[in-house]
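Entry 12.
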Amino acid sequence: MNALTSFHTDIKTILEQARGKARSAVNAAMVEAYWLIGQRIVEEEQQGQQKALYGKRLMEDLSAALTTDFGKGFSYANLYNCRQFYLTFPEQGILYTACRELSWSHLRLIMRVDSPQALDYYCKEAREQNWTVRQLERNIKTQSFHRLLSTQAAQSETPGASDHLEFIKDPYVLEFLQLPELGQLKENKLEQAIIDELQKFLLEMGKGFSFVARQMRISTETSHFYLDLVFYNYLLKCFVIIDLKTGKLSHQDIGQMDMYVRMFDDLKRGEDDNPTIGIILCDSKDETIVKYSVIKENPQLFASKYQRILPTEDELIAEIEREKRLIEGLA
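Predicted 3D structure (tokens):
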């Protein structure tokens, strides 16, 4: 019976791998076909004297003809997406580099992104981090790329920070914790909510993070200290300490985190580990306090806000721009 079970498992694995390869091959072929359809539509449109009107009529007529030939899947909207796909990736070489292993559902979301840099980011991260369509949609909706840029703007003048700026966001969006929108929040409640939704929190943190401990104790000869959350980033090869603050950021909070990072490096950091990073995750912060604190001179310390609810894209963009203007005004 055991031999039969092992035999059955082997055959099942072979079939599942074959089906996976077949799905990947079909996806790659269809993505290429959609790009070629978009290319051909654009070429045909360029022959028309009144491009906008001609292009709309052209795709409507083509949609009707293809639906007769092939059935569903060739609506005007889908043909418009093919056209946009070609215009977004006009060179076939770039298409293969950026879009390999991404499904058509992924690509339809990415095509809506507003800049070439963001386009490259979402293509690369979706592919390398194996994001589902839902994860990609949330990262685009929460402006993940622009939140990383916000951190880079804040730390651009800090020596040595460039190696890990692409890993730190500001703000973090924690709507999945289902915290109350208003009112004072206890830090232990925030910590417990993060532990309860740890997988989602790790996805929001970004690539390379793994959970190590909560309330980790570090001790000196005379005192004990407890770190709210400790992670390890295997890409940066360093520990990341998170201190949770449900009130406004203060100089005392920054000084405490500076002490935690120094103590952790002295007591816990391994020989092969890079210097520890400390992130103060706070409900609100004053950029003036940040500017005139040790954060400004220490590339291992960060202060990031968190948002309890999922803002609209416009609200989030406005918040990011507001932070950037504050930083520029203080610079």
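Annotation: The beta strands are 172-173, 209-219, 224-233, 238-248, 277-284, 301-307. The mean pLDDT is 83.
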